[in-house]
Write a structure and sequence with these properties.
Pfam families: p450. With 414 residues, the protein is α+β, with helices and mostly antiparallel strands. The chain has a single domain, classed as Cytochrome P450 (Cytochrome p450), CATH 1.10.630. The strands form four sheets. Strands 1-7-4-2 form a four-stranded mixed sheet, sandwiched between helices. Helix 6 crosses helix 8. The chain is globular and about 60 Å long. The protein binds protoporphyrin IX containing FE. Protoporphyrin IX containing FE binds next to helix 5, helix 12, helix 13 and helix 17.
Length: 414
Amino acid sequence: MTTLPDAGLRARMAGYYDILEKADDQGDLYARLLRGPEDPYPVYEQIRALGPLPRSALGTWVTTDHRIANKVLRDRRFGVRLADGQKVPEFMNFDNSMLGLDPPNHARLRKLTIPALNPRMAGRWRDRADELCARFIDELPAGGATFDLMTEFAQKLPVTVIADLVGIPDDLRPRFTRLSRRIAPLLDGVVSFHKVRGVDLAIGELTDMFRGIIKLRQEDPGDDLISQMLPAIDDGRLTMDELEPLCMFLPLAGSETTVNLIGNGVRALLANPDQWDLLRADPEGLAAGVVEETLRFDPPVQQYRRVAHQEIELAGEVLPVDGELAILAAAANRDPAVFDDPHRYDITRKSAADTLSFSAGIHYCLGAPLARVEAEAAFRAIATRLPDLRVAGEPRRRDSFIIHGMLHFPLSVG
Ligand code: HEM
């Protein structure tokens, strides 16, 4: 269990928000982004106008340039930890598993996780995702009543799929779902003291829950990730201290991201009726295009950070050891040097797959094939079963910057 946030943390967070607010007031665009603006896309364009690698008053270099972003993500002179191997200080004391590790520990953990997320399982995932989407649509209110796309559909799918993957016993699933939602703010970067406290408690409860499940699988192994990992503990390739955070990291990395891919996709489709019509006419053929174009146009994860492990010259700038660089992936996805008419949502776009929405290099998302299968199933099912879908109220967005999406999106059918 992690230590509870204290008065010191509250003060440190308040200080941080003050700094952000002051820098934003003085025109610092990266500070503005970190404060979670209503619409970040115009801010990205203002940052793009400053050049390929401007430096924020907060000390961080920032890029919207696709070529630089792609290069940095693949450059082994950059990492996710400080040069001495320490974690970059954050408000939340969470071990984000392999995503927070540099080589060689990163490679060891990643290699052990690969089999559970192998794209060869896509056929099985597809059947399961289709079955779940059909069930969730059946459960929607009948007769044109308003429903919430996020809570009544999008939030249900990924958490169920991850529960299957990790091997959560049926009786623990409602608790797993609740706790997974409570740790979601971990992905958001800037959060409130209140949220940090809630997250800390949820991490403690999830850790206890996983300890129990790991014990269960030691006695009675199944066809799940935990059971697949146990031999690596026995032969010393993995420690128990690494398995627990890994179990917890998967619902974190794989839920809220996929939830918002589905939400952002439906929102973009309904805002672009020509594209919605195309999908409705050919759900089987175009659902994959919706996934790729939504990942490009409005990606769930908007930025990644890297730290220079040595002095690095880049785009006319010199980054010192431990210099921090923010990759604005959502902006790189609209770089006019790579994408024609980048602000247009076009589900038939051929270059959509060049996006950086699943990152690149050694941390490239391990769950990308699974996320694609799930979101494709969702768009296919929605277009087939709910062709008369309409917006029925104002969406409520997540008040965060790193994960971009909605908390609520009222829709109706007919
Ligand atoms: C639309 C859904 C998803 C998006 C947009 C997404 C995005 C990302 C991104 C951007 C990263 C790397 C961040 C960085 O480079 O700093 C990442 C890493 C990762 N993701 Fe995903 N993800 C999604 C779904 C999933 C799912 C479904 C899973 C697993 C069930 C998953 C598991 C992981 C893992 C294990 C890593 C760490 C890889 C490493 O550090 O080597 N993700 N994801």
